[in-house]
Amino acid sequence: MRNELDFAPFYRSSVGFDRVFDLLSNPQRLQAVDAWPPYDIVKVGDNEYRISIAVAGFEIGDLDITQEHNVLIVKGGKGEEGEGEYLYRGVASRSFERRFELADHVKVENASLNNGLLNIEMRHEIPEAMKPRKITVGAGANDHASLQIEATKKTT
Question: Which InterPro entries does the record match to this protein (predicted)?
Fold first, then answer.
């Protein structure tokens, strides 16, 4: 049975969404399902997001956050603790790496570690050149020429 989706109909009516379709159709880019460490993704405002990752037992120096173009990579790793022999180890402290695909123009603004939660604040900032703008409809090339002729008539 074939599980691949056909995005061909969407290509006919969309422009610039190639990256999205590539993400959806390329299963190798998806990481294996790993439930550790648990995390939440919250939409805080219209253009504001927060990722909260439960990293109990990790300190600031144990965590590394990197943004590479449209991918946010969060890594955590602890050194060996020599405080004795563990009879039972219930607090997970294994190394991890989490990857989050980000939309274009999403920027990480802040990261903080409070009460075992790593909070990463992000904002989707649309550049001024990409914001909607009003386009006036003219009569074409002749419209521009007629404006120049009228300007010339007024100066003589």
Answer: A-crystallin/Hsp20_dom, ACD_IbpA/B, HSP20-like_chaperone
